[in-house]
Specification:
This protein is mainly alpha-helical and 279 residues long. The chain contains twelve helices and no strands.
Length: 279
């Protein structure tokens, strides 16, 4: 009968026992950590949320200026983080990367910075809906809309940055163009088309009407994009409120002519339809 050595199988059993103990220890550590994490989360979540909101706000504000100046491809993630005063990892954490950050900045522009323009659109749209397809009302609202848009984009403090980003998206569209188009451009373009159509008694979806609306909006936007040229030609340092009003009035006058009305007759109230410029 074979005699077993006193130490036979000890190594194998010891290894199994050690593995067992390690597994149990790791499980215990995980449970402890989970409990601590849950406790910390329940205590500090509001503070984390506030800190996160502040970091996001800094990133959005800094991103507007940075992307306006350099574009999406012209600035590195590290530079963006430095401009916002945050760690580089924060951009990946909050936005998933530079492209997601840029998209968030554009959404911020449309939802927050462009709110005065969106409010103007809604106000005019509401009045148009109540006009019962009256051509005279359409002309008046068209003049108010273009005048209000011109003054807003020339005097708004961050209009240059907004125009820079929006212009880049017109020339080299990215995914952000859809955000701009659906949030601002399409509603404005459709509204101007409806106003022109009602004022001229033509369908709003014909190429002629849409192109005419595009021309009218182009007249307004050009004064923001090429404002530096105008100031240089006129010897102005910048566009003041009085100058913005002067420009807006000229734009409104050209809008009248574009829909076949004599602005002098409208100003004096002598137009056969009794249309008066109320801007």
């Amino acid at each position: 009968m074979p005699t077993l050595h006193p130490t036979a199988g000890i190594g194998e059993n010891s290894e199994f026992s050690l593995f067992n103990r390690l597994t149990k220890s790791i499980d215990c550590i995980i449970l402890i950590l989970k409990g601590e994490i849950m406790a910390k989360n329940s205590e500090s979540m509001p503070r984390k949320s506030k800190r996160g909101d502040k970091a996001i706000a800094r990133l959005l504000d800094a991103g507007v200026e940075a992307f306006a100046r350099y574009g999406l491809e012209g600035i590195a993630t590290r530079q963006l983080a430095k401009a916002a005063g945050v760690n580089v990892a924060a951009i990946a954490y909050y936005f998933g990367g530079k492209e997601g950050y840029y998209l968030a900045v554009v959404r911020h522009l449309v939802q927050e910075r462009a709110k005065p323009v969106r409010d103007l659109i809604e106000r005019v749209r509401g009045e148009l809906s109540a006009s019962r397809e009256n051509p005279e009302t359409a002309v008046r609202l068209l003049l108010q809309l273009l005048h209000g848009l011109a003054v807003t984009i020339m005097l708004k403090h961050d209009a240059v940055a907004i125009a820079s980003i929006f212009s880049r998206e017109q020339l080299r569209p990215t995914d952000a163009f859809e955000v701009i188009y659906e949030g601002v451009i399409q509603p404005m373009h459709q509204l101007v088309s409806q106003l022109v159509a009602q004022a001229t008694r033509k369908p709003p979806d014909t190429p002629e009407t849409i192109i005419r609306a595009h021309v009218l909006l182009g007249q307004v936007l050009f004064f923001r994009i090429a404002g530096t040229t105008l100031c240089r030609r006129l010897g102005w340092n910048h566009i003041t409120e009085i100058r913005a009003e002067q420009i807006a009035n000229i734009i409104a006058e050209m809008a009248c002519r574009a829909v076949g009305l004599d602005p002098r007759q409208i100003d004096s109230g002598k137009h056969k339809n009794g249309v008066r410029d109320e801007t």
